[in-house]
Write a structure and sequence with these properties.
With about 140 residues, the protein is of the alpha+beta class. The protein is built from five helices and five strands; from the N terminus they run ααααβββββα. It is about 60% helix and about 20% strand. The strands form two sheets. A three-stranded antiparallel β-sheet has the order 1-2-5.
Length: about 140
């Protein structure tokens, strides 16, 4: 279960990086309506000035349910791929692979007794090129500030 939590943490981190990048791009992009009003001197219509309605509780609940179902189906696909193929790749994001660890001898740090650690499997992650470039770009921006 720990490896799945690691997978989820990595996935959430990657998604948050992508969201931050999208927000930065959104800030730099002019809205189409702004461009149209500047270029053609179009006055905003009455519909543009009306306040937008907040989504109802049912709509919000349905959206959360859809999000939950999407994440569950995604994780099911990832689990199935990892168990059958030993690899799961998301283009531009990265790839997950199953790693085998051989049994080994270790020491209990408190008592110093030797312990036999059994063989186990874990999930490894390697970032895709796009995600790595984005992470490096964000790291450079953090260092400049």
């Amino acid at each position: 279960m720990g490896s799945f939590l690691d997978f989820a943490g990595i996935l959430v981190k990657g998604i948050s990086i992508a969201i931050e990048e999208a927000k930065k791009q959104e800030e730099n992009r002019k809205d189409f309506k702004d461009v149209a009003t500047e270029k053609y001197s179009v006055e905003p219509t009455k519909d543009d000035l009306l306040p937008r309605e907040e989504p109802s509780k049912d709509e919000t609940k349905n959206a959360k349910t859809a999000q939950r179902e999407t994440i569950e189906s995604f994780t099911d696909i990832a689990k199935k791929s990892l168990t059958e193929n030993g690899k799961f790749t998301i283009r531009g994001f990265g790839s997950f692979t199953v790693k085998d660890h051989k049994p080994r001898k270790a020491r209990n740090p408190r008592t110093g007794e030797p312990i036999d650690v059994p063989a186990r499997k874990s999930i490894g992650f390697k970032m895709g090129r796009d995600l790595e470039e984005m992470a490096n770009k964000l790291d450079k921006e953090d260092k400049e500030e």
